[in-house]
Amino acid sequence: MTGAQLDQLSDYYFKKHVADYNVYARVSPEHKVRIVKAWQANDKIVAMTGDGVNDAPSLKQADIGIGMGITDTEVSKGAADMVLADDNFATIVEAVKQGRKVFINIQKTILYLMSCNVGEVLTVFMLTMLGWDILAPVRLLWINLVTDTLPAIALGVEPVEDGIMKCKPRGKKSNFFSGGVASSIIYQGILEGVLVLGAYQFGLHVGLHIDNTALQHGDALTMAFLTLGLIQLFHAINSKYLHQSIFRKHTFSNKWFNGAIIISALVMSAVELPFMTRFFDITELNGAQWAVVLIAGLCMILIVEIVKFFERRAGKR
User: What pTM was computed for the model?
Assistant: First the structure.
């Protein structure tokens, strides 16, 4: 379509049929602004590239104005939101990919941290409401110190997911809690709390110190403490993908994440060292009790994976 032909179309018709036209020729700056506005009227995020003074109005009107760093004029650079240093259009595609990666990694980190905190709050709340023994503040602080630092940072530097450019745009109204993140925070936090309380009850009623209530309570609290800490590290693995399965080839390709999980697991398990048990006022668990703690962590992974499976079946990406 030429600029002269565009002048013959009403705004109403052009907005309705703008997707039918791919190439424009001999257009003025006013025509470029009109084309951008027509796409925006269809609720599209519009990127505009340009390198001349006559491109400045449309660069300003677009949601993302992209100037050229080598051939661009100072006027268009000033009107642009970003400037391509190499004047290569492939760089725009790469920028979109990296932007999507950053957004998703922030979502992963928020999902991980908030669901873990929901699990902690629910555990302490239920222990209090039911009149059971309560985890000491120093234990909760230790869990937060171990789980809310290295794993969360590592999730923020996850590599680009396969197929990320095949996903549909998020839309103008999306936020970090969109795409099922908010509901995942709630159900995963509740799931963590339930598994921790289950480990506590197991230690309370299926312990080895049947004739010693104090020791049995100590075992139960220790199992709840370690389960609450280690289950969050298992959940960090879940959080690597919002909807995709973790059972894939590249799940552990991020060496920073692998190192963060290993270090955090060792630090969390170090509370079972003799001098540390006295500091945290906990007991030393036997092999069967450790097995319960680890099974609770594996249950966290398996249940979340089952939910993700049905989410994918329902069309969530």
Answer: 0.86
